[in-house]
Amino acid sequence: MVTACTLKHCAGKEYYCSLELTLQVIGGKWKPIILWRLGQDGTLRFSELRRIMPNITQKMLTQQLRELESDGVLHREVYPQVPPRVEYSLTELGRSVLPVLSEMCKWGHAFEARHGTSDTGLTTRAAAPANGGGPGDDMDMAVGEV
């Protein structure tokens, strides 16, 4: 017999199961990529994130970064200088999701291998990871694709 889930509340979010909560915090088109890049490249400035993700709008990147910061997944450091410099890095909580994203990347590679790819000439590859990378560390970035 299947038991119905009950409505829960955590960190200002309503959800019925922990997977739903997880997707509210790290789900969507851009958050996993933001987290992955910060995990691979370390601390990044806003403009560096925009370069890595050419299809995200400034407004959307700002919104996603604010949500991730609000949920305690990333840290925003503002340096008091002119012009202001803002850097983003993962918190311990943010780093804890990297193994999940790595497995998702591996799954994507397996899906790609099974179904093939169609190169439209729009694919770009982000710079090599600062940590030297490894299997699944090269999350491909295709324009308009996640």
What's the N-to-C terminus distance?
A: 37 Å
Shape: globular
Unreliable stretches covering 5 or more consecutive residues:
124-146
Number of helices: 6
Mean pLDDT: 84
Strand content of the residues, in percent? 15-25%
The quaternary state of the protein chains shown equals: single chain
Strand order of the largest sheet: 3-5-4
Give a concise summary.
The protein is of the alpha+beta class. The protein has helices at 18-26, 31-41, 46-52, 58-70, 92-95, 98-115; strands at residues 8-10, 13-15, 44-45, 74-79, 85-90, 123-124, 141-142.
Provide an overview of this structure.
The protein has 146 residues and is α+β, with helices and mostly antiparallel strands. Helices cover 42% and strands 16% of the residues. The protein is built from six helices and seven strands, in the order ββααβααββααββ. It has helices at residues 18-26, 31-41, 46-52, 58-70, 92-95, 98-115, and strands spanning 8-10, 13-15, 44-45, 74-79, 85-90, 123-124, 141-142. The strands form three sheets. The protein has a three-stranded antiparallel sheet with strand order 3-5-4. Strands 1-2 form a two-stranded antiparallel sheet. The N and C termini lie far apart (37 Å). Mean pLDDT is 84; it is low at 124-146.
